[in-house]
Amino acid sequence: NLHYADCLRANKSTMAWGVEARVPFLDKAFLEVAMNVDPKEKMSFKGKMEKHILRKAFDTSADPTAQPYLPDSILWRQKEQFSDGVGYGWIDSLKDTALVKVSDEEFAKAAERWPQDTPQTKEAYWYREVFEQWYPQAACTESVVRWIPRGDWGCPADPSGRAQKVHDSAYDKNAPQA
User: Fold this and answer.
1) Same domain, 71 and 131
2) Domain shared by 104 and 146, yes or no
3) Tens of pLDDT along 105-118?
4) Domain containing residue 41
5) Are 113 and 78 within one domain?
6) Last residue of a domain, one of 57, 82, 107
7) Domain termination residue (choose one: 82, 97, 120)
8) Most-buried pick from 8, 21, 126, 162 (CB within 10 A)?
9) Which residues partner with 45 through β-bridges?
């Protein structure tokens, strides 16, 4: 369902500025090759990070005369969720803004205001509030496909999708959560 979330987000966020996003790894010929690779070869484990086959395809370290396609710091960095490509600072600023915009009193009454799909965080509350300001008709709300993160990501209530277990080290444990 990439077309409901990641691809749509990429399209809207780039086209808003008149830029067309290209998504080479969704090319049909590329996908045909990728889908025919033995699934066991695509699995990550200790000593073999995610997307290893793709990373090795861009790795020129075996040929000392070859120019690298990408710096090692990019080629071998931790895989991030798609939304993290905009940077943690942007996501954190949204969470911080939500903490300011939504009072504790308002958040405590979230279930009264929205008995169905009640926001579980102040960030989600704020997004819902902004949506309703722009689209007050019930038909608009009914047309929205709700994004539900996978349970194994460890962030079922995080609307920005950032609170994955893999990102625990990126959090300030003492910071309030939006």
Assistant:
1) no
2) yes
3) 999 999 999 998 89
4) 2-82
5) no
6) 82
7) 82
8) 126
9) 48
Q: Are residues 29 and 98 in the same domain?
A: no
Do 107 and 165 fall into the same domain?
Answer: yes
3-state SS of the chain is CHHHCHHHHHHHHHHCCCCCCCCHHHCHHHHHHHHCCCHHHHCCECCECCCHHHHHHCCCCCCCCCCCCCCHHHHCCCCCCHHHHHCHHHHHHHHHHHHHHCCHHHHHCHHHHCCCCCCCCHHHHHHHHHHHHHCCCHHHHHCCCCCCCCHHHCCCCCCCCCCCHHHHHHCCCCCCCC
Q: Is the distance from CB of 92 to CB of 68 less than 8 angstroms?
A: no
Q: The dihedral of CA 7, 122, 150, 86: what is its sign?
A: positive
- In the numeric block, which tokens belong to residue 3? 């077309």
Binned at pLDDT 50, 70 and 90, residue 84 comes out as low
CB 92 within 8 A of CB 158: no
